[in-house]
Amino acid sequence: xxxxxxxxxxxxxxxxxxxxxxxxxxxxxxxxxxxxxxxxxxxxxxxxxxxxxxxxxxxxxxxxxxxxxxxxxxxxxxxxxxxxxxxxxxxxxxxxxxxxxxxxxxxxxxxxxxxxxxxxxxxxxxxxxxxxxxxxxxxxxxxxxxxxxxxxxxxxxxxxxxxxxxxxxxxxxxxxxxxxxxxxxxxxxxxxxxxxxxxxxxxxxxxxxxxxxxxxxxxxxxxxxxxxxxxxxxxxxxxxxxxxxxxxxxxxxxxxxxxxxxxxxxxxxxxxxxxxxxxxxxxxxxxxxxxxxxxxxxxxxxxxxxxxxxxxxxxxxxxxxxxxxxxxxxxxxxxxxxxxxxxxxxxxxxxxxxxxxxxxxxxxxxxxxxxxxxxxxxxxxxxxxxxxxxxxxxxxxxxxxxxxxxxxxxxxxxxxxxxxxxxxxxxxxxxxxxxxxxxx
Length: 440
Fold this sequence. Notes:
Blueprint: H1 12-23, H2 25-62, E1 70-74, E2 79-83, E3 90-98, E4 102-107, E5 123-128, E6 133-137, H3 143-151, E7 159-166, E8 169-179, E9 185-189, E10 199-202, E11 207-212, E12 215-219, E13 223-228, E14 231-235, E15 243-250, H4 252-277, H5 295-305, E16 321-323, E17 329-331, H6 333-342, H7 344-367, H8 373-439
Antiparallel strand pairs: 1-15, 2-14, 3-11, 3-15, 4-8, 4-10, 5-6, 5-9, 7-8, 11-12, 13-14, 16-17
Helix pairs in contact: 1-8, 2-4, 2-7, 2-8, 4-5, 4-7, 6-7
């Protein structure tokens, strides 16, 4: 129904708007509650993500394999060393007697790249030290064709060829793709005749290390795998004559980082929880947390702090881990390193199967995507938010109907008042007319 606001001497549209503001008060309360619930849900989801990250850190510290690391050092950068978990702590003096070399052939004659250099045909023969022979087709017998055929992966030659520019043309340089004395080869014509005036050879060579007390070892490459059980040494090319002291020790820095990361992760989560659950101070509740009074969050916080306590007489204080007066974890790296040096296996067990395991189980019980306490709380709040959202939408429909009803009522009232006003004016004019007739 169209509004005729103002006909009766008052603004019915404005009056309806004012009445609707009163009608909206209950809906506004629901909307305020919905907004608060959404903020609390966001806070819970953020916290749950942080606790899930804590689970990952705890899993790392609880993994026994993470505690088997070894640290390997070398006093000379030309001698690199790596150590696996099976390596035993110790040291070794190394002298590089020689490094590994590939076998090379430098051919005497020069030629243009398009010159035919394979006499009597297009094929050449590659003879290896192990007695195998391979015939290679150069297609056109030219210098470039020969180099291309030697470099073609399909031919599986095991060598690489280069054309080196010199006075008068190019010379052919062929090198084995592997190093070591077993990489030797010969390259001739198909009938065994010399190519390009014959070649000068640099024989392949094994790398050799001297370990002292008359002990030497060789390798076809510059890498000596398992020089000691679990220890691999790699020497740089051209490092012959270099001496180095190689030391293998337990990875103290890695173990320390595992514990520090776990403690830092715990403190990050606990700080977040404290900020979310604080009741605030003062009459206005200044600083009140988003989840103040949430018993689930406070329970998880208490359980995480309780992981510092083990069974029986177990104490983490000797490992440098304690809780201060404010409920935060502290980690003294010097105390931990001292304990780890004195008893590596015992210290690793106290953390991996003790402290870290307790943190992992507690954090997972809170954040597990299927069974976690916080996960259940998040699910509950989502359901509550859906109900509140439905309620707000129902209020929208109810208020729309109410506005329509009020508009109709006031429009009808204005119309009636307008009719009465017109009738009143007509009666007044009639009475006035009668009065004029009588006086005449």
